[in-house]
Amino acid sequence: MYIGTDRQQITNGDNETVKNYYRRLKEALNHIGLRSIATALTVFIITAGIAGYVGIRYYEAEKEVLLLQGELNARESAIEYNSCLLTRVNIVTLVGRAVDEMLSRNTGGDQIEAYLTQQTEYIISTLDPHTTGLYGWIAGEYLDGSGWVPDAGYVATERPWYLQTLQSEDEITFVEPYLDVQTNTVMMTVSELLSDGKSVLAMDVSLDPIQNIVEQVSSETEGSQALVIDTNGIVVAHSDKTMLGRNFLEMPDSAGSRIAKKILIEKQMNFDIDTPEGSYSVYADQLMGGWYSVSLINSDNWYRPLRRTMNTFAVILILIMAFLVVVFLHLNEKNQALQKLHTIIDQEEKRGEELQLLSETDRMTGLFDRVTGKRKVDDLLASSSNGMFLELDIDQFKHINDTFGHQTGDRVILALTDALRSTFRSNDILMRLGGDEFGVFAVGIVDPEMGAAIVSRLFTLLDRLELPELNGGTFHVSIGAALSGGTNANTFNSLYALADSALYDSKKTPGNSLTFNS
After folding, report:
1. What is the pLDDT along the chain (518 residues), one digit of tens a residue?
2. Strand residue runs (E) in 90-184
3. How far is CA 230 from CA 38, 169, 330, 454, in A?
4. Alpha-carbon gap, residue 397 to 418, rounded angstroms
5. Contact between 517 and 424 (Cβ < 8 Å)
6. Is the pTM of this model over 0.70?
7. N or C: which end of the chain has fewer CB within 10 A?
8. Are residues 102 and 233 both part of a single domain?
9. Is residue 275 domain-shared with residue 415, that is, in the same domain?
10. Count of CB atoms within 10 A of residue 438's CB?
11. What phi, psi does 391 have (nearest 5°)?
């Protein structure tokens, strides 16, 4: 009873410790600040990105090496196979030419068979001790260089080697291989149709040299297999001898069947395949006679060092992340104080900007007030920036206030403000001089025609205004304009005086009007 209680207390204590740790971590993250968190995340992301990039490049390099190794294995087998088979093909071709020459001289069957016997003995003694030698259906009779006498029921013209040779369009026919169950040796027949179109010369050869080649190639690469299949899916050679003579296309749902279909039907020479024994990268190369040399490399074994490296990288990243967490927990108090200080400074700066903006602008329109506008214009003129100064006045504004009310008057002032902002540029000085009186200093406008074109756009905007408060009515403005330059127009006050005089003349013209002080 006591022991159980003690264990419960220990468990509760551990849980409380974990909860306190996470609570401290949460508080620290809340106080660290976005900049510090962003810095940590940036460091982590860059590190992870570098690791990922290195991993991807390493994987691509390993994949390329894997493909090259598979291609090398398949082509090495192909070269050895073609070299081995080419020797047999050359024998059949040379003997065939000699027999054709004998047939053209009407040489008797006994002499032809004697020649085949001589050549067979030579082949067995120097090249292939497992071959059954040269034989064939020649000039209407079966001749055999090994001295084999067929049974009475043997019909040479019904044998596969004869029928397939007649049907083939190739100079040399590779008859479908077969497995000799007594010797567990795969044999095949190389045959040739002679010039009379009826006679066929053939030679049975052992594919043991091909078997030796695939076994050697397979042993040179760990976790690899090598094989040769014919166009019907029959295994001619295989690093696993139990597969010899099997037809992969007749083994549904097997890895061999999937490999044979991809190569023979889909014509894929390089692909990956998953099997119960593991994942393999497959590379195939076509051989003489249409057969295929196939190399399989176990990619699981191949990529094992890569996985170890990536796991090491993952551990390093986790350690880096843990280190960053510890560092940020340690700097929590300093970051918190720094964040509070920045907040206070930002608030004071924002408050100062708001106060300055309020002190420089007209509260109703948001344009510069008269004092600020005068100061900015004088600063521009002092820096030799010339331009056009406009003084605007809303016609019969008192009548608008008296007729429609002061709220409508305010709405007219705001509408004119919007039109001014739409007409002039952001670097031009827009100001409310007081009441319904406005001022504009258009920087760089020193030509009356250019100035008149700009003011014309303002008049167009005002003509298009529709204010429901005016009950279908409109309002107009009178404008006096003056261009800076010279001794009499180089300050705000002098420009204002000139524009005010021109405004007096504009008031005499009904509707929107502009007058330049001459």
Report:
1. 344 445 555 556 566 666 666 666 666 556 555 566 677 677 768 877 776 677 677 666 666 665 666 666 667 666 766 677 777 888 889 999 999 999 999 998 899 999 999 999 988 888 777 777 899 999 899 999 988 888 888 998 999 899 999 998 888 888 877 776 556 677 788 899 999 999 999 998 777 777 788 788 778 777 788 888 888 888 888 888 888 888 888 888 888 888 989 898 999 988 888 888 778 888 888 876 678 888 888 777 766 666 676 677 677 778 777 776 666 666 666 666 556 666 665 666 666 555 555 567 898 999 999 999 999 999 999 998 999 999 999 999 999 999 999 999 999 999 999 999 999 999 999 999 999 999 999 999 999 999 999 999 999 999 999 899 898 888 999 999 999 987 778 899 999 999 999 999 999 999 999 999 96
2. 133-138, 141-144, 172-180
3. 62, 17, 71, 88
4. 17
5. no
6. no
7. N
8. yes
9. no
10. 25
11. -115, 125
323 in a structural domain? no
Tokens of 425: 């540029």
Last residue of a domain, one of 285, 302, 319: 302
Q: What is the CATH number of the domain that holds 437?
A: 3.30.70.270
What is the domain extent for residue 151? 60-302
Q: Verify that 235 and 371 share a domain, yes or no.
A: no
Whether 368 contacts 439, CB under 8 Å: no
* Pairing, β 387-394 against β 429-434: unpaired
What residues contact residue 80 under an 8 Å CB cut-off, 6+ apart?
209, 210, 213
The answer to whether the beta carbons of residues 208 and 185 sit under 8 Å apart is yes
**Which among 237, 307, 297 is positioned nearest to 68, based on CA atoms?**
297
21 shares its domain with 65: no
Place of tokens 């039109």: 419
Are 190 and 131 a contacting pair, CB within 8 Å? no
Provide the residue type at 33 as one letter: G
Using alpha carbons, select from 292, 445, 429, 444 the residue that is nearest to residue 373: 429
CA 84, 88, 93, 97 dihedral sign is positive
What's the token pair of residue 424? 């002039």
Q: In the chain, what is the straight-line distance between the N-terminal and C-terminal CA atoms, in Å? A: 111
230 CB contacts (<8 Å, ≥6 apart)?
A: 174, 176, 177, 236, 289, 290, 291, 292
The single residue listed with the structure tokens 């264990």 is 7
Question: Which position has the token pair 């040489």?
Answer: 107
